[in-house]
Each structure stands twice: as structure tokens, then as C-alpha cells.
């Protein structure tokens, strides 16, 4: 009986691994985190934003061709969107990210060199989303309470929770949202890949992180 049970467990694990490595399942998990709508700069807000906060998305990468470091792929996507929002709104920008090679400094350099936007503030102490919020509150002027928060859509729930608990009025500006178009059935969408498995893992990590933050930082 024990051998049969273990066999069923092994097969179940393989089936789940396969499903999480497919595009439809991974997309469903990612889209379930994208709870906030697209931000439209032309719309009037109940509370007008006073600054744009762009969150770092990973450790900077060595860039031999440019003799320095470059932002990670996720960070670069956020910078591009944040720069666009800056041009649309004229709001000042804070970049947030620490680490051994402070991410904020590399973000500020990329923001200027690649997008022509100057970061007014750099928060370079944080290593987690929660710390992004805590140290951003220490960095920004006390009278600045309302922010446009820029990060990926799948990261936004945890980021909003963190920044609201830090005392900000948060206007989510989620970027890089998943494609929700409904394609016809294609067998290729059900072929497993490491990329889709990584997407599923990211979604589970975000859910776990959100739950952890909510539990340990309850008021």
C-alpha cells in the first residue's frame, strides 16, 4: 500500500510540474496577481500624485561592453515605463534599490543616459520590497504623501501593501502586464518550458511574500 501511495504522489508531482511549465497555466497564475488597472495620466485622481517611485527589479548585471553595470531586465522595463510617466506628468522621480552594488545608482544612471530623465532622489539601502517602502518614506520629504508606484503588475499587490503600511497614499501604475488576448488552441502552448515554469515560480513567490508581509506587519 505504501509503495502504491508513493507512486501516486510521484505521478501527481510530475503532472503538476508539467502544468506549471505550460504557458496557459503560468499565464493564469501571473494574471491572477495583476489586480490593478492600467494607469492613465490624463485621468483626474481623487488624490493627485506628487512623485513617481520606481522599484528595482533585481541585481545589476556586469556590462563589459560598457565597462560598468547595467540594470536587470525587470528593472530596465520599469525604468522605461517610469520615464514615460515622467514625460507625461512632469512628476519628480525616486528610484529605489540597494544591495552590495546599490541598484538605485545604476537605475539613476540608466534613467538619465537611456531615457533622458533625472532621478531627484535615490533610495539605496533596501534589499526587499518592504524595505523599499520604509526607506522611501525616510528619503522623501515628509509632506510628500501621494505617489505613483511603478513596478510589474504581478509585483504590485505586495508593493502596494508595503507602501501603504509605510504611510503613503499609493496610486498603482502597473506596467508590463500579461497579454490577455485569447488565442485559439495551439499545441505549442501546452509544450513545457523553463520560461513558463519560472513564471509560475514567480507567481507563487509573490503570493507567499504577500502573505508573509500581511502576517508579520499586521496593525
| Mean residue pLDDT | 92
Shape: globular
Summarize the helix and strand pattern as letters. HHEEEHEHEHEHEH
Q: Percent range for helical residues?
A: 40-55%
User: Rg to the nearest angstrom?
Assistant: 20 Å
- Beta strands, count: 7
Descriptive terms for the model:
two-stranded antiparallel sheet; 219 residues; 5-stranded parallel β-sheet; alpha/beta; Rossmann fold
List the helices and strands and how they pair.
Elements: H1 2-20, H2 23-33, E1 51-55, E2 61-63, E3 68-70, H3 73-89, E4 93-96, H4 103-115, E5 121-123, H5 129-139, E6 146-152, H6 156-165, E7 169-175, H7 194-216
Helix pairs in contact: 2-7, 3-4, 5-6, 6-7
Tell me what you see in this structure.
Helix content is 47%, strand content 15%. The chain has seven helices and seven strands. The protein has helices at residues 2-20, 23-33, 73-89, 103-115, 129-139, 156-165, 194-216, and strands at 51-55, 61-63, 68-70, 93-96, 121-123, 146-152, 169-175. A hairpin with a 4-residue loop joins β2 and β3. α2 (23-33) runs parallel beside α7.
